[in-house]
Structure formats: structure tokens, C-alpha cells
Write a structure and sequence with these properties.
233 residues, mainly beta, nine-stranded mixed β-sheet, 1 helix
Length: 233
């Protein structure tokens, strides 16, 4: 089994030793720790046991496969949020976000897909995005998922194509790469998409196309919506 810690690209990695949690929806038995920002080489037991319950073959999951990220999505809370993820194969993986509620950590968001990258956005109330998706031989499609704390709680406020590869079957082939950038002061999100076309084989680019999209944060709907006249080349 491929271990996620060896090949996932992580923007921010921080591990914290905190209390227990149960993914079945029951409350954890221990209080969260105030030392949440401290880095540790040891993976705590509760996210490890949480992830083991999610996978189809939990006996194959090793503790070092789990990666944790701590961040501050709602600074009014005493404790930070925890993002945890594990990719076991190109077909199975999980991303889970935990937040402290009534003195215990609970699961507030989960996505059942292999995860290929994580990025923390902002300096105030932070957001977190991750890339996930499935693929096969010569075919891969991943999407961005941007999470934020909103008036409706923790939710996905934007999603878009992160990576799309077609390098199998008859040509032409293509490869599309997406990037995102957010601004705290304007509440804007910039998304750029670059597509490479290969008419004969994947090693020789025949043409390139680039699109830029700009989104603003809709406070009422708690999502990012496109600004007029975006999607320009």
C-alpha cells in the first residue's frame, strides 16, 4: 500500500496531541488541549482510530500515514480546527475537518476521495483547500475544495478543477492545471486554468490555453460567486 506521507504535497503540516474523538458522531471522552499549536512527531491516537474506521481495510492503515494540519478558521473559538487526511490508494482516501464543540472535538466536514494536496489560506480567519479525486492509467481528474467557517457553520464555499489529464487512447491528449489565490482584504478568489494540448504524444505540446476567473465572497449565500466579465483568456 502506498503511504500518503511519502508523496503528498502539503502546504502546512502541524501535528497536535489532543484528546479522543469518535467518528460515529459520539462525543469524545477527553478535553482538547490548549497546546494545539505545538508541533509533535507523534500522531495522537484519536485521529488514527478515526481514520481506521473509515477505510475498507483498516488493518492496513499505519499511524504514520495520517497527516494533521492545525489552523484558525474561527478565532472566536478557544481551540484551533484540525484537518486530517490519509490516502491509501489512487481509489481510496479521506479528508476530515474537526472542530471543538462543547469541549470536545467533532467531525464537521468529510470527503471520501484520495487527497493530493492541502493549502491554508489567509492570516485572520483562515480557510483551507485540498485537492482530491480519482483516476486510472493515463486518466486523472482532481478538484479543489475550499472550506471556510460561515454563518451556516463549516462548509465548502468554492470548488473548481485542479488537475485534468487525458493521456490514454487516441490523440489529441490534454493536461489542465488549476491554481487558486485568495485575498483577505478584498475577499476575492483568483482561479487560473492552464490547458496543454498534445496532438500526437504527451511529450510534445501543440498548443496552450489559459483562462482566469475572479470570484467574490457572497456574505448572504456564504459562497464564492464569479464576478461579471470573468473567465477571460
Amino acid at each position: 500500500m502506498m503511504r500518503a506521507g511519502k508523496w503528498l504535497i502539503i502546504a502546512v503540516i502541524a501535528v497536535m496531541a489532543v484528546g479522543c474523538v469518535q467518528t460515529s458522531g459520539q462525543q469524545a471522552e477527553q478535553q482538547p488541549s490548549d497546546a494545539a499549536a505545538e508541533r509533535s512527531s507523534a500522531i495522537p491516537e484519536w485521529p488514527f482510530e478515526s481514520f481506521k474506521q473509515k477505510f475498507s481495510q483498516p488493518h492496513l492503515i499505519d499511524k504514520e500515514d495520517v497527516t494533521l494540519v492545525t489552523l484558525r478558521m474561527n478565532r472566536q473559538r478557544r481551540t484551533p480546527e484540525i484537518a486530517a487526511f490519509l490516502t491509501a490508494s489512487h481509489l481510496e482516501g479521506w479528508f476530515v475537518l474537526y472542530a471543538e464543540e462543547n469541549g470536545v472535538y467533532k467531525e464537521v466536514y468529510a470527503k471520501h476521495e484520495p487527497v493530493y494536496g492541502v493549502q491554508v489560506h489567509g492570516a485572520g480567519d483562515q480557510m483551507i483547500s485540498f485537492r482530491s479525486g480519482v483516476g486510472g492509467s493515463g486518466v486523472q481528474k482532481n478538484n479543489f475544495h475550499l472550506l471556510s467557517y460561515t454563518q451556516q457553520g463549516y462548509k465548502e464555499v468554492w470548488s473548481g478543477l485542479a488537475y485534468d489529464l487525458l493521456a490514454n487512447g487516441p490523440p489529441p491528449f490534454h493536461q489542465t492545471i488549476g491554481t487558486i489565490y485568495t485575498e483577505d482584504n478584498t475577499r476575492k478568489l483568483y482561479y487560473q486554468q492552464t490547458t496543454y494540448i498534445y496532438n500526437e504524444d504527451i511529450s510534445r505540446i501543440s498548443s496552450t490555453k489559459q483562462l482566469t476567473h475572479v470570484y467574490h465572497y457572497d456574505e448572504e449565500k456564504s459562497i464564492y460567486t464569479p464576478l461579471p466579465e470573468t473567465g477571460r483568456e
